[in-house]
Design a protein that fits this description.
Elements (H helix, E strand, L loop, with lengths): L13 H13 L4 H8 L5 E3 L9 H5 L5 E4 L2 E4 L9 H5 L5 E3 L1
Antiparallel strand pairs: 1-4, 2-3
The chain binds iron/sulfur cluster (SF4) (2 copies).
The site of one iron/sulfur cluster has 15 residues, from helix 3.
């Protein structure tokens, strides 16, 4: 693809590692494995009780999916692309992609 020098891929399970290795090595996806992985929906979780409302995560989100309402961070799930960059920016470690 023109203009792309590298790809960062986040993986959470052994199945995801196997599927990506197969895809990158053989350039062919294992249909059954991918079907199983795609049936699993992920979401961004913010443990709101511990949120300090510092707004650090807002700057980390290039998609504009986060806001702070009444002192607590919230995610717009329609806008969030689950990149996880906000998680690293939170000093309270309360943001997770699960
Ligand atoms: S996971 Fe990515 S897109 Fe979603 S809220 Fe965090 S930084 Fe924004
Ligand atoms: S960075 Fe963490 S503590 Fe700060 S507003 Fe975001 S979720 Fe809350």
């Amino acid at each position: 693809m023109a203009g792309v020098d590298g790809v960062a891929i986040g993986m959470l399970s052994e199945g995801e590692i196997d599927a990506n290795l197969a895809l990158f090595h053989d350039d062919v996806a294992d249909e059954e494995t991918w079907k199983g992985l795609e049936s699993r929906r992920r979401s961004l979780r913010i443990m709101g009780n511990f949120c300090k409302g510092c707004e650090n995560c807002l700057d980390a989100c290039a998609s504009g999916a986060l806001s702070v309402v009444d002192g607590k961070a919230r995610v717009d799930e329609e806008t969030c692309i689950l990149c996880g960059y906000c998680a690293a920016s939170c000093p309270e470690f309360i943001i997770r992609v699960v």
